[in-house]
# Entry
Amino acid sequence: MMRILIIGGGSVGGKLATDLRDPFVLVESDPSRVWELREMLGFDDDSRNVVHGDGTSRETLEPLSNDIEAAVVLMNRDSENLEAVSTLKELGIKKIIARVNRSENMARFMEFGAEVFLHPTGYEEGLIRTMLYPDTKHAIQIFVREGSPAIGRSIRELELPEGTVIGSILREDRLIPPEPSLVIQNGDLIALDTVGSGARKAWRIFSRTGRIGPSGHILIPLSRERDLTAVKEGEMLAKSLGSEMIFIVRPGSEELLKTVGGFISKRIPFKVIHSNNSTREMMEGSRRISWERKERHEMELMSILEEHMREGAPHVDLVILPPPSKPPIYFPFLPQSIDRLIEGSPIPVLVSRNPKTYRRILMYIHSRSTQEINIAIEIARTTGARITALYKRPNRKRAQYLQRFAQVYRVEVDIVRFAGNPTVELIKEVKRNLHDLILLKSNLKELQTSQMRRLVHLGERSVIVVP
Amino acid sequence: MEMMEIVASASVPTGLAPILVNGRIASSEIDPFIILAVVAVLGFAAPFFAKALKLPLVVGEILFGVIIGSSLHVLGIVGLDIDLSSGMMDLLSTLGFITLMFMIGMENDFDQLRAISRREKLAILLVISANFMIALVPFLLLGLPLMVGLIVGGVSIAVVMPVLREMGIQRTGFGFKMMLIAQIADVAAIFLLSFSAASESGFRTVMILISIPLLFLILFWLADLLIWYKPHLMSRITNPTDQAELGVRATLAAVLIFYGLALFIGIEAVLGAFLCGMLFSAIFKERGAMMEKFMPLGYGFLIPIFFIYQGFSVSILDLFDAGALALLFLLLSVQFISKAIPIMVSKFFKRPWSNIGGSLLLGTNLSVVVAGVKIGTEAGILDERTSTVLILYGVTSCILFPMLFRKVFRKHLSDRVGAEGDPS
# Structure
């Protein structure tokens, strides 16, 4: 059960609330419409399910936002909707679905992480339900953005999931019939009818692969000579992915920055953040991550990440850390600062050991490995690496998804099924030393934490740990 | 020696025709394979018997054993004394108990343990401590040995886990907390019983208490190193498709080594099997394939033998002694009250029915009774009559409380689990 906040109780909001299966709170600015909605939905006159208020105001939304997991913004003007989306984002609502009236405004909504649909479509309630409950969706609209692998390919070549039919394509205010030979272009708005999990797959085929890529940033803290490995690997990745680098320089590390500036390619954009936060400020900055016993370095890094996200600054896709020094005897039961940082980071962390272009990437497929698949595909697509994916029989659908996804992106992939213990099989594959990059999910139930820590501390290859 | 006799008698074809000597049939005169066949048939029939009477399977198995045991006692009174106990059955029953304790140890989920709050951990420890204190008081007042109170303070995880598993609630929050209380109370009781026998000095006791977690950590570290440095070997061991079934061999060897190690350290031997299971669960987060290998052997063969065999040792005829009946009633009452008071007072589970149900299921007590009676008789603390009543009490608690739990909890579960997935 998830609690949903609906902002705007017009015809679409009212219809949506009528047959929504989860508890909701509806905010409407027109008092007479509030009474009408309460009567229509069978609520008492003082019901807290239908509330009178301004959907763009923080005063209205903040008290209602407790336990809210998704919000649907359905007001009439794009400017109001955008304001509401921005407030909801600030209030920490993760899933925001917004109606957009003018297609040129879509990108602005997307910058706030909102899922959008263009008004009017005629089947908006169905569309919203589809977006709220992705597993039972029937119809979706996809806006083809720059970087989508579908651009330049015909509908026939896309290999859409079974049962998925393209209803219409809107291109520069013209509706185009979806002929199999039609080539997809940047900026196309595609309406699809799907069944089951087809919508999710279709979404992946059309949209950008994940959180790593051209519009994102790679964050690299600098403090020691060892950090140069991280800089080199960061440069290689930034060059491949088209990302920008951000260096965090602590007091006393300015010399290191000069060295970095000396060897880094002029074509790779980067910016520098000088970190001189006091411990108290850092504590306050990292309050939301609520770690205990954090060390200064971690706190500083997390504080910067937090600030970076809060201010709506360019999104950080990846943090690159230098490899930790190898201890003579390693005890994985006593987590070190880097372990706590990796295990608690909200952003993927790469422990750098390989500044050369990747040739092979190793990953473990589990039941929820969408994010790792996206990242692996994006890196493999841009670096030309081959992916080896280990999976166990219950996760075969995820493996098939990777395979299909890889076909679309023309990435070479080896899917390896095993029957034994996931940790043991993964370590066995790692020890073959065939892979330059290992991609894992943090705190995964199937994988032994102590072995994952060993990979970070004693491994010989770069490791990306995805939250 | 006994095993040798059995092996000898097993090879004699006349074993198929028991010989009546002075109206008695001695155990060595019945071919042990006939006894095994009888128990195997009973093991096969037990699930049908339990289902017909709407009992948890474990209860059905024990009750089945009690009925057979009591029938044999009646036959003994009329002069036909058939003793179904044998060295082979003892061995298989012990193996059943070891397998059960190993699998219980394997069921541990350290991630889930980490996920519960400090407050909940403290509450669990308080409930268990209060349980032992409440259990000790009445028996000390009556002048009975301290050991009886410790036995009554115990909980049988060996019964709690199969009952929860059968009802499909072992992985819910309620099931997890129940398992945790039962495991700690079971292990604590067996430890306390071992030490209360007073053969060891205080220093040795402390050393044992320190050495066990230390040993556990060292072995965990070694296993962790083995995975890192010898993944190919470990892959063969953990691969369920390995032709040589290296995993089963390694696990059996590990369990028996732990069993022997526990004997060597001087703690109750089945605790070794339990610790081995815990170690496996700590090393291998994903151990489904390993469990699948052991489940048919354990739940399909060895564990039913253990439960049925426990039932054999009890005769309903023992209930006809008024003193024994009173003591039995007292033991059962204290057993329930010592769990119910801390759980109810602390409102351990969110819902009242969960508190009542939890207290009832935690009333089961078998492994602690078996171990306690063994330790107590060997140390000369428990007389024969008290030991008999204690065994009777253990078996009765395992029949009575799970039945009541299921009765109380069934409706509650259908109301709650369907809606929220967790009865806690």
Observations:
- The first strand of chain A starts at residue 3 and ends at 7.
- Residues 1-131 of chain A form a domain with the Rossmann fold fold (CATH 3.40.50.720).
